[in-house]
Amino acid sequence: MIPVSVFRLSLSNKGPVVLLRSSEDQRTLPIFIGNPEAQAIAIRMEGIAVPRPLTHDLMLNLLEPLGAHLKRIEISELTDNTFFARLILDRDDKELVVDARPSDAIALAIRCEAPIFVAPAVMQAAGIALQDPDKDSEKTATKIPDKRSETDKLKSKLTKAVEKEDYEEAARLRDLIKERDRNADTN
After folding, report:
1. What stretches of 22-101 show up as alpha helix (H) in DSSP?
2. CATH code, 2-126
3. Which of 149, 176, 166, 170 is nearest to 158 (CA)?
């Protein structure tokens, strides 16, 4: 499993998206979520106090009287463009696994300060590699002909789309890159 952290919560033309950044490399996993879950994540990230417990606060409040604590969450699967997650709970030294939507699992994890992990296959399938913005290679005075492969050019466009928070375009480019990689593997 790949350890990740909530890198950013953004609003795209398709709605809210949470970006999970790998602690092992520059890959980031974008997951589109609903407005209520985005609000629940943002409230906790910003440290905003609410007068009454929200749903994820209630979940947290239920864990202690039940003698359980959240050990970690795992974004475990990607099937038909749908992410799946699980809560890994510890109760009486027994590990309990509970199916959850990633957005709910993330909202609970940040409340419990529990680690977040992504399955390598999920990161491979949907992760986006972001380049270091300090390494801007286009600062040269003379334009050098671009001899990069078409896949490298698509990856560069993908990085720019993510930086502009155009996640619809980023997803389209990611799919093109995957298709090119599949075709290269069969040839």
Report:
1. 35-45, 55-63
2. 3.10.690.10
3. 170
Packing angle of the helix pair 167-186, 150-163 (nearest 10 deg): 160
Answer yes or no: pTM beyond 0.85.
Answer: no
Q: Which residues contact 166 (CB under 8 A, 6 or more apart)?
A: 12, 13
From first to last of the 187 residues of the chain, give the pLDDT tens digit: 999 999 888 888 888 999 999 998 889 999 999 999 999 899 888 888 888 888 888 898 899 899 999 999 999 999 998 999 999 999 999 999 999 999 999 999 999 999 999 999 999 999 998 654 444 434 333 333 444 567 777 777 877 777 777 777 777 877 777 777 776 666 5
